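hi support,

uploading two proteins for the ticket. first:
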Amino acid sequence: MVWLRVLGSAAGGGFPQWNCTCPCCRAVRTGSRPCAPRSESSIAVSADREQWFLVNASPDVRAQIESFPALHPADHWDEGRLVRPQAVLLTDAELDHTLGLLLMREGRGLEVHATESVHETLTSGTGVLRTLEAYCPVKWQPVVPGADVSLGDGLSYRAFDAPTEKRMRFVGAIAYGRVVGYRVTDTRSGRSLVFLPCVQRLTPEVLEELAGCSALLVDGTCWSDDELPALGLAGKTSREMGHIPIDGPGGSLEALAPLPAGRKVYTHINNTNPILLEDSPERAVLDRYGLEVATDGLELEI
């Protein structure tokens, strides 16, 4: 069995976002409509509820770990500061998925699974890993899309490339493997889940990676492609920011609704997305098609 805990379900900036007065942020601050605050996107997975692996390390990682007792350090003085997360798997090099690494610097060391592209960006671009290495040992485990990797007794993962045309922020960044999804599998039962918080296009190749999974947590950043421009909050569309919208032609809903996965959950939800409001028409559409909206603390058993 694979155990999954949603540590955070919001996109960068969380919900509400500190500098935003969009309708959703106003609603969650005032309590005028049914909705819940959310921290930035991350999950934890385990095969035995003892050894846990984080997928992404958001800037909210400290509060997320404290909110989940299974991730608390072992209460044995002879073991010192035994940290529960065994490693961190990264889907990309975005700050909202990697800044939390710096907050884990007090550990004896950290194992980071990342593609060559993500590793290069975090070392020579943002400098996150270079800074972290000044505080604690960092072991880089190269992630090769398509390769099966054991995470110990009963658990494995296979990363897959999620092609993106989003503008590279750093000179010299490697294009292939900039964004990946992870298929995490219980090696005993063969049941698996897919975590894909960022995807620009659900290509036939990406959809093939989703086939047969028991649960799917997928990019739900924006409801519509022009969501932020329509609110006057940004000039870029959802796709230009590297995220497929949920609604509209070519949106994720029409591709995901027919999939037979038992649980299909939108995560990495932007603060402007009306699906955050439980009484919104957009939320009713998802209910009608059997898709869920992640909340912090959601747990799945696969």
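and the second one:
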Amino acid sequence: MRTFIARRMLRSFGRRYGYDTSYAEMILQEAPAAFFKFAPLIKAAEHREVVPVDAAFAAKITGALAEDCGPCTQLTVDMALEAGMSKGQIEAVLRRDLGAMSPETALGFHFADAVIRRSIEDETYRDAVRARWGEKGVIELSMGLQLGRMFPMLKLALGFAKECRRVTVAGDQVDVIKQAA
């Protein structure tokens, strides 16, 4: 029964976001015990108490970009819009346009980018996050960043990451910049 419900939820999620959930459905079909251990991570990736929406999704989008070439990044963008992040702030993160980012968006982006690149600046941005939102803020940005990266990597490892596509924000294509030149 719970497998039936999980499959329906996956398909509903896929329709809602225009996202291919076939990799998760395959896990559910072939290894239900593994799927039901994996499923709670979806909720964990959504956890947010103290960090503003813009900072949280700046980190999540930056993480998705590090591991994905379109579909998972698009999903994260769509979720950011749904959560209330402005189109302009999302586009600024996708383009790495610091001048167009609000201070909150920039801090979420800088933190995530430094962690992804294993930059010596990671401690500087971690301290800035801690000063702004406390230890909870560091935990929230870390979980959003790292758990969000796990989904495209699992999809790739299972052989389902076959599609690259342009990212759109509210119907407009955006020229994504993955790393600084």
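thanks. also noticed: The chain has two domains: 1-38, 47-174.
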